[in-house]
Structure formats: C-alpha cells, structure tokens
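User: Can you write out an input/output pair for a complex, sequences first and structure second?

Assistant: Here is one pair. Inputs:
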Amino acid sequence: MQQTQLKELNIAQNIIIDKERKLVSLYGEPVIFHCHHYNLFLQQTISDPPFINGIEILQDSSQEINFSQLSNAFLAHDANTVEEKFAIASQLFKYQGFGIIEFSGDENGGTAKLLSSHYAQGWTSKYAHQIQRAKPIDHFAVGFAAAVFDAIYADLGHFSAIEESCSAVTKTLGCTIQISKAPVPRVLKPSPGMGEITSSPISLPRAETNVDYEAVNEALWGLPLAGDDDGLIRAFNVLLTHMPSNYYNRIQYRFVEELRQVHPDLCDVGKELIRESGHVCVFYTFGNIMESVEWEAVVQPMIKNDTDWIHGGFAVASSLGWGRWEALEVESDKLARVAIDGNYETNYHLATYGATDKARCFFAQGAIPAMMNIVYNGKIQEKPELTEAFYERLFKQGNVFHAKELKAREKGDPYCEFVAQRG
Amino acid sequence: MKVKMLNRRVCGDDSATDFFIERSLKDLEIEKLKNKLRGRLSVFGSLFYIDFDAGRLTLTSNSERCTLRTKTNNPDEKIIIAQFLSDLEIVK
C-alpha cells in the first residue's frame, strides 16, 4: 500500500491550549516546544554511554508516545483506510517540525522515507564540518515509524523499525527506515497522556515586574509555529520541534533509572547531564528568542530594568506548553525564586511513578539558573553571538548560577519552587 | 535612510541578514515592501511576517531592525529589501 496525497489537514485546529494551566495538547498528548540544540544534546547524552541501551530507550519511548498520539489522530479525523492513516501520520510529523516522511507497506511491514529530517539536518548544521558521523541519528523517527504501523495494523509493540540509511552519515539527501512485524509483540508501555495535572491553578503571589505574563502568552500562542514545506519549524534562529513532552520525560527518567540499575555511581552524573540539557535549551532557544525581532515586538516594550529580562524569559517559557513558570522574586544579579505550577515534568512523573521523596524536575533545575546566567553573566541584552565557545565560557567557568528545588509537587507540595543563586 | 546589514549563519544551515535602519517601518511601507517581494503578509499585533518562496522577513513597529531568513545566502530579496529601505526617508 502506497501513501497517497490526501487533502491537507488543518492540524492546528486540533491544538488545545489550556490557558489556565499553560499546557498545550495535540490529539490528547501534551506538546511543548524545544530546539534542535536541546534535542541533539539530550539524545546524545542518552545514546552515548556504552553500558546502557540508550538507543532502545529513545526508540521505544518514541514508539510508545507516538502510538498514543497517532491513534487519537486517526480517530479525530475519522480515518478508515490505510492511505488516509499514512497521510495523517505524515502530516502530523511535518506539522510538529520533524521533517517530511512518506510511508509504504502492509500488515507485514514497510518503508518510511525521510525526505527531510529535523535531527539529521540539525546535527549536520552543528557538527558535519568537524565530525564524520558513523551511525544513524533518527531515533525519534524510527519509533514514530514503528508506531504508525502499530496504530494502523495491530497494537503497540507489534512492529519494530531500523534506520538503514541516514543523511547525517551518508551526506546525501534522505533517510530510509525499514519497519517489520516483530516475531513476538514486545511489551511496551502506553503514554500517560496529560498525566497528573493540577486540579486548578494555584494562586501565586505576583512579583514586582513590568512584564505582563499573560500578554506574552497570548502573543506567542498566536504565532504560526508549524512545519514549513520541508517539515521544519524555522523560528528564532533555531529549528524547533513541537514535541510530545512525554517523549522527553520518558527518555530522561528512563535514562536515570537505567543508570541507577546498571551503574549506580553514575546516577548523579546522569541527573547532572539532564540539568545541563536545561542549560543548553535556555542558552540556545531563549538566547536566540531574546535576540529575535519577535522579542523586540512582544516583550522588549515591557522591559524597564534587568530583572524584567528574567520575567520576560519565564513568560516565554510559560508560553511553550511547559506549565505555569513564574518568577516570584528576582534580585538583580543575585537571586531568582521561581515557581512552576503544573510543570510538565511533574505531571508525567506523578502519573508514571507516583509521589517521591526527592525533587525530580531535573530539566527545570538546569533551565532556571541558566536564565540568570544568560542575563547576568552572558549579558544577552547586548546580543552576543551564541556560539559553542560562548556557551562553554558561560556555563563552565566559575560564578555561575545554580538552582535548588525547594518545593516539589512530586513530593507532595502544592507546586514546585526553585531558588537560583551563584556558587 | 542609512541601512546597515549584518549577515550571519543561523541554525539549520539557513542564512540570516539583519537590516539595521534609522526608524521602524510604517504600516503602509510594510505593505509596499510585501508587494515588492510578492510575499504574503501576516500581522500579529506589532509583529509582521512577510513570507515568500525563499524565506521570511520579520519586522516590528517597535524596532529599527528587521531580519531576513532564507535557505540560501544570496537571495535576490536581500537586494530588493536593502534598496527599498535605503530609498525611504528618515522622517519618524
């Protein structure tokens, strides 16, 4: 069965924005924006260690989460034929900024051709001039492709996939993924969907700031951030993806759990690497946003002092589907106290693992102090060039900000609260 | 008016050019620029996108900068935009 061209779906109409909780969902799965720098860093962190099966974590998690979203999408669009379902899968992949993918096959398996790829092109633009890549990179797409066949022909875990040719390796256009029916269905874990969201938003004390968080939210929610003709979201000088957040959650927590089981002495290193992914995200995504014309249009007119830059950054964060991120208090160049009501990490963690006795928002633990770093150490107001060398200087030299998660909803507190300070 | 251009490579191997001018553009001027580029204009408050085949020009009425992002480094649109901006009067 070959994929055919069906009419373009209006996928954007299926985006649901929960304005109170500042969560965004698409076909029942929470979705958030992150850039290719973060995507590549996180993927490499998990796939690099030779003593854990990181690639399995990446591909299985993608298959599990995408199975849920795809199944819901097929229902939402009343898709009955295989052609319709292949077409919906391709359009969803494109809309979310992962690239262009085309499917062919039947109940025994098939092929997915990636005509463009967020991960491959992102990696090529960052590293190809210095490294010859030896292994395929499209682990998310591999899981997605297997999930498509699961959702069309069987159930979760009935198909598996492998990337046979990757443009980041071959340096030629296009990637090829082969999907085949598993001899025995694998036991995979369904997505928890929206997870354990807050029953209602907490009333947080309003900090002294000129930034109108809600106005920033409304402005950014109105922007057309969707895959272009290449299936890429070219925005704010980065490549964005509108990723199901449960994919990020699942791979980061599975990574830490796998380390705990296989190499317990490296567990804290693993958590530190997830925190570092927060640094990478803020430096590249927020750094570029803060240097963009969009920032000058929407946020800059509100800014009257340096602490407003921090508030502006968190107002943007709360527009990306991450939950309600609000700075409660910012002392210039010294301290930020930040609340997250209904963090996407916590929503997933509570639904998957239940309550814990330790704070577990590892990404937020890194992202929050990173915001202070780029403003007070990085002087982002002066629009420095956001290079790897600058990142290294900013985050690896002394006097950087670090954060502690003082309150954690995953521990039973009503919301998560962090303090970022130097040292 | 004077136009300064800054070329930079952005992520994904695209090309970006910042045009620094002496004042922000007026609505009518943005409309005229859109016609010159044969693009499609989207308006989000004080933020404007002019989309055309080669890429996107992002402008705002709050800033004296606009950014052209394209897939190639030498689009014809760069010349059109630079010329259009330099032909404008400075009057704020």
